[in-house]
Design brief:
Layout: H1 2-5, E1 8-11, E2 18-20, H2 21-24, E3 37-41, E4 48-55
Antiparallel strand pairs: 1-2, 1-4, 3-4
The structure holds zinc ion (ZN).
Residues 12, 14-15, 17, 42, 44-45, 47 line the site of zinc ion (ZN).
């Protein structure tokens, strides 16, 4: 389960940086979050807010 979940990334709306939902840590999400947005913070540009989830290899 952990392995497949690693494919899910938050995409920063500001710079497009893809952040692993596991790397970001402390973020509550699950199957219900698919196609929705999660609260997070971009480590690349510092933008915090709701970010769309995208499944990437
Ligand atoms: Zn960013």
């Amino acid at each position: 389960m952990m392995r497949s979940s690693e494919a899910w990334k938050m995409i920063c709306p500001n710079c497009g940086h893809a952040v692993s939902v596991w790397e970001s840590g402390g973020i509550r999400w699950g199957a219900k979050s698919v196609g929705k947005r999660v609260a997070g913070r971009c480590p690349a540009c510092g933008t915090a807010g709701m970010m769309p989830l995208e499944k990437r290899p």
